[in-house]
Amino acid sequence: MLTIAAAVSLAVGVYDDTLGSHKDDEVKVGWVEGAAIFLAVLVVCFTNAINDYQKELQFQKLNAKKEDRTVKVRRDGNEVEIGVQELNVGDILLIEPGDIVPVDGVFLTGHNMTCDESSATGESDAVKKGSVDEGRDPFILSGAKVLEGVGSMVVVAVGVRSFYGKIMMAMRQGEGA
Hints:
177 residues, alpha+beta, 7-stranded antiparallel sheet, 41% helix, rod-shaped
């Protein structure tokens, strides 16, 4: 809208300077107002573009940092802290309250484990985890948050093969369609 106003102002100014009442003036300044509006529009557009670009860079850094978290696993009988990108199927993942489970797994051992799986299933109720012998749900989905209890689980799916990974891939394919 402002661009249209600038074009009209520029056209009127040029007309006035060449054919209008100011055609005999020594200094032709009718175009200045329209040019100034165009310049203001360009400055605002350029500033917004730079601002959006900087926000996008910050968002990408934040996402990279989110994916660069560490978890505790038991490998070769030793407790080791590794990055979530290094998790493999068969690893024994040690989980505690506050952890967001990065992979799918099956509950092995633990005490009073409760998870919030609302990010994966949409159910707002906390789910008690445990062994099948205890009559509890042994499957822990990626994206679940451990609310209480401690335990260990065997990793059965990572990356795009995990529940959360499949959702992310479906979303990406939906964006590309």
